[in-house]
Amino acid sequence: MKAVLKDNVIEIYDACLVKDAIKAIPGRRWDPKKKVWTIPMTIEAVEQLKYIPGKIEPIILERYRELKRIQDKTIEEKYAEQVEPIEPMPLKPHIKPYQHQIKIYNLGLINPSFAILAEMGTGKSLTAVSIAARRWQRGEVKKLLVVAPTSVLPVWPREFEACTVPYVCAVLEGSMQERRKTLQQLNSIKDKLLVAVINYEATWRILDDLLAWKPNMVIADESQRIKNHSAKQSKALHKLGKVAKYKLILTGTPVQNQPLDFFSQYKFLDETIFGTSFYAFRNRYAVMGGYGGKQVVGYQNLDELIRKAHSIAFRVTKEEALDLPEQIDQYQYCELEPEAARLYNEIKKQSYAELENEQEITVRNVLTRLLRLQQITGGFVNTDAGIQQHVSSAKLNLLKEVVADIIDAGKKVVIFARFLPEIKAILKILEDMRLEYSYITGEVPNEQRGEQVRAFQEDPNRKVFVAQIQTAGLGITLHAADTAIFYSVDFNYANYSQARARIHRIGQKNNCTYIHLIAKNTVDEHVLKALQRKEDIAKMVVDNWRMYFG
Question: What is the pTM of this model?
Answer without folding.
Answer: 0.80
